[in-house]
Amino acid sequence: MDASFTAEQDEIRRTLRDLLRARCGPEELRAAVDRPQGHDPALWADLAERLGLPGLALPERYGGVGCPVADLALACEETGRALAPSPLLATAVLAAPLLLALGTGEQRARLLPRLAAGDLTAALAVPGRDLATALALTGGNGGAWAGGGRAGGVQAGRTDTGWRLYGEADQVLDGHSAGLLLVAAHTGGFARSRTLLFLVPGDAPGVTRTRRTALDATRPQARVQLRQAGAELLGGEDADVLGALAATGDLAATVLACEAVGAAGRALERTVEHVARREQFGRPIGSFQAVKHRLADVHVRLQAARSAAYYAAWATGAGERAGGAAGRVGGLALAQALDALRCAAAEGIQLHGGIGFTWEHEAHLYFKRAAGDELLFGPAHRLRARSAEAALLFGGGEVRV
């Protein structure tokens, strides 16, 4: 493993940081999350057109840049620093890999170039609150999360004119604004029960999308209701949907880990800047030994999480080149990064004193990012338990938490 960054990676990080510093400050961030889309369309256009972020890890034959996964993860470390709201996670990390892995040649040629260009955004819709389960982050995804033949979830049925979907998916990231929905649905009844993925235009008849109030406003969510909505099957009926979702889950965990590391690093920087200015008893509070010890503990956690996230980014790419043998470490890196972000955000709120608890200050946004990601993709102890189970650390038995 070569731990040094390439010149291209350094340039991507520098350019992206400069852009976000100029276009995604505290005021711009609050204005963006209050927009109907939940993000600033002009900033998204710049991220797509100037930097090519949506297609960074997509093959060149589909309009992408063809960079390794590590480049996308490092770019997301910068978006995490700024808590930049955008459809990047939903489009480039959750939806595009599934289209690339499962789509037919015609579907890839039709949709991936538009995703890479940023002209089309996409969202992965799974039933209820089962995103972490569907991505195999906190347990196996071979269970009944998509419906399992019982009432609830999303059901798919074949008609004379194609497939029709009926049901509801909740907490869909950027589901209210996405132009394309990838919907996980159950089909086949009890005897041939299986989960398939379907392509549904966001504005298709029978689709109702409602933006929901989320703990972390920088990750907008929606409830998607389907009432006999027409759908196109992604790939074929024999596609390995569960395997593709698990591989996408490891990629998503790796990217989220780098995002969390970026957010934790910025939260720590802001806190260090504050304690260097804030004075008590005639001296900066940062000179007090107790404050130094607390911030040193945060720094150690952050560096450990950064190392884990960078290794996961490298291993995910190496796993792709080696047929998957070196990957599947994203969950552990995400657990470490979420712990570091929660610690950095909590200490930041405490050491900012009274202003740290106010709505007007930005400290609470970092804490909400940590808590929101744990609710969507964790919690950390279940991410670790799943990794231990997959590695057979306890004799191959299921780890109960």
UniProtKB/TrEMBL annotation:
Keyword Endoplasmic reticulum among UniProt keywords: no
Which InterPro entries does this chain map to?
Acyl-CoA_Oxase/DH_mid-dom_sf, AcylCo_DH-like_C, AcylCo_DH/oxidase_C, AcylCoA_DH/ox_N, AcylCoA_DH/ox_N_sf, AcylCoA_DH/oxidase_NM_dom_sf
Per UniProt, the keywords (alphabetical) are: FAD, Flavoprotein, Oxidoreductase
Xref: Gene3D superfamilies: Acyl-CoA dehydrogenase/oxidase, N-terminal domain (1.10.540.10), Butyryl-CoA Dehydrogenase, subunit A, domain 2 (2.40.110.10), Butyryl-CoA Dehydrogenase, subunit A, domain 3 (1.20.140.10)
Q: Which cofactor does it need?
A: FAD
Ranges for domain Acyl-CoA dehydrogenase/oxidase N-terminal = 6-119
Q: Provide the E.C. number(s) assigned to this enzyme.
A: 1.-.-.-
Q: Ranges for the Acyl-CoA dehydrogenase/oxidase C-terminal domain?
A: 254-391
Q: Name one GO molecular function term.
A: oxidoreductase activity
Q: Give the family this protein belongs to, as stated in its UniProt record.
A: Belongs to the acyl-CoA dehydrogenase family.
PANTHER family for the chain: ACYL-COA DEHYDROGENASE, ACYL-COA DEHYDROGENASE FADE28
Tell me the protein's name. Answer: Acyl-CoA dehydrogenase family protein
